[in-house]
Automatic annotation (TrEMBL):
Domain MaoC-like intervals: 15-96
Species per Swiss-Prot/TrEMBL record: Streptodolium elevatio
SUPFAM superfamilies documented for this protein: Thioesterase/thiol ester dehydrase-isomerase
Family of this protein: Belongs to the enoyl-CoA hydratase/isomerase family.
Name this polypeptide is given: MaoC family dehydratase
Pfam family, one: MaoC_dehydratas
Length: 141
């Protein structure tokens, strides 16, 4: 059952999520998205571009945050608006461990029409990787 407008108030926290990304995940995402930019798979090119190593796709990072919201609301079609800015790239080392992306969210405002604004904090390695990350969500009546 989807989250209803009566179940959400300002300050309601979404269940936190930690996703581990590995180089294998980047290859899979590149194939699915057809984004084969070499900064996502070639360390030499990433370093030449000023990165310390290969980085995750920005849209992948955004999708992880959006998934946290849709899992909370239990309706993937409930997001009516979503925006963010990329603050820092997610560096993915060439090892078996990968890197963690942590996502936290909370209801930041109640809006008209049974909608809420969810404010997200997305970090990796202790640094904020998305800023101004917000989703407007239509809740069940």
């Amino acid at each position: 059952m989807a989250i209803s407008a009566e179940d959400a108030e300002v300050g309601t926290e979404l269940p936190p999520r930690t996703v581990t990304l590995t180089r294998t995940d980047l290859v899979r995402y590149a194939g699915a998205s057809e984004d084969f930019n070499p900064v996502h798979w070639n360390p030499r090119v990433a370093r030449e571009a000023g990165m310390s190593d290969v980085i995750a796709h920005g849209m992948l990072t955004m999708a992880l945050a959006a998934r946290t919201v849709t899992d909370w609301v239990r309706d993937p079609g409930a997001i009516v608006e979503y925006r963010t800015r990329f603050a820092k790239p997610v560096v993915v080392p060439d090892d078996e461990r990968g890197t963690d992306v942590e996502i936290r969210g909370r209801v930041g405002a109640l809006l008209d029409g049974g909608r809420v604004r969810v404010d997200l904090v997305v970090t990796s390695g202790g640094a904020k990787v998305l800023s101004e990350a917000r989703a407007v969500v239509r809740l069940a009546p």
